[in-house]
TrEMBL record:
It catalyses: D-sedoheptulose 7-phosphate + D-glyceraldehyde 3-phosphate = D-erythrose 4-phosphate + beta-D-fructose 6-phosphate. This is Probable transaldolase. The active site is at K83 (schiff-base intermediate with substrate). Keywords: Cytoplasm, Pentose shunt, Schiff base, Transferase. One of its GO terms (cellular component) is cytoplasm. It is found in: Cytoplasm. Pathway: Carbohydrate degradation; pentose phosphate pathway; D-glyceraldehyde 3-phosphate and beta-D-fructose 6-phosphate from D-ribose 5-phosphate and D-xylulose 5-phosphate (non-oxidative stage): step 2/3. It comes from the Bacteria. Belongs to the transaldolase family. Type 3B subfamily. The lineage of its organism: Bacteria, Pseudomonadati, Pseudomonadota, Alphaproteobacteria, Rhodobacterales. PANTHER family: FRUCTOSE-6-PHOSPHATE ALDOLASE 1-RELATED (PTHR10683:SF40), TRANSALDOLASE (PTHR10683). Transaldolase is important for the balance of metabolites in the pentose-phosphate pathway. It comes from Sulfitobacter mediterraneus. Its main location: cytoplasm.
């Protein structure tokens, strides 16, 4: 499973990238706001840092304007993925931009039917939001499973990009289901390394090592 980092913070991306934990990056208007940076400037910096796809989101609501914004964003770098909302106009823009050879990430997906439409419109990625469904007491992981089944049934190439990841359990479950990609905040990715038994075992090793009175260096 590919790991995308859901942030526009350069330092956080660089830290994970140095460890080989970054296959791509996803951004959105809220993350751009949080970064306090100009969208074109910070997106270009991320593209220069990361080899994989970098999602940059349009803010227009009408198809023609989405297409124009998508073309502008795609000029930033070869690894830009134009991020479009899963609306009828977004699907129209997806069809045009994907037809031009641009990578497209269709976002804010909350149903398998929406995911089916995105695949037929040529989306490179579909971004179902797990956490926001869970917030409504619906099963976000069930949506990932339903999309996986539909795409496998018909051989769609659109990659399932599990989004709105809130916990390490979300990551594990998405991997077991067969999501192609997951995108998560840096802090969630770093938490994947943690386990209470690892901490407990390391603590005991350090106590025993101290008793030996030895040094390695």
């Amino acid at each position: 499973m590919k790991f995308f980092v859901d942030t526009a913070e350069i330092d956080a991306i660089a830290e994970l990238n140095d460890l080989g934990m970054v296959d791509g990056v996803t951004t959105n208007p809220s993350l751009i706001l949080k970064s306090g940076r100009d969208i074109l400037e910070v997106t270009k910096e991320i593209c220069d840092l990361v080899d994989g796809p970098v999602s940059a989101e349009v803010v227009a609501m009408e198809a023609d304007a989405m297409i124009a914004e998508g073309r502008k964003l795609a000029e930033i770098a070869d690894n830009i993925t134009v991020k479009l909302p899963l609306t009828w106009d977004g699907l129209k823009a997806c069809k045009v931009l994907s037809g031009e050879g641009k990578m497209v990430n269709v976002t804010l997906c909350f149903s398998a039917n929406q995911a089916l439409l995105a695949a037929k419109a040529g989306a490179t990625f579909i971004s179902p939001f797990i956490g926001r469904l869970d917030d409504m007491h619906l099963d976000g992981l069930e949506l990932i499973q339903d999309i996986r089944t539909i795409y496998d049934n018909y051989g769609y190439d659109t990659q399932i990009l599990a989004a709105s990841i809130r916990s390490v359990n979300h990551v594990q479950d998405c991997a077991l289901i067969g999501a192609d990609v997951m995108t998560a905040p840096p802090e969630v990715i770093k938490k994947l390394a943690g386990h209470m038994l690892t901490d407990k075992g390391l603590d005991q090793f350090m106590k025993d090592w101290a008793k030996t009175g030895q040094n390695i260096l």
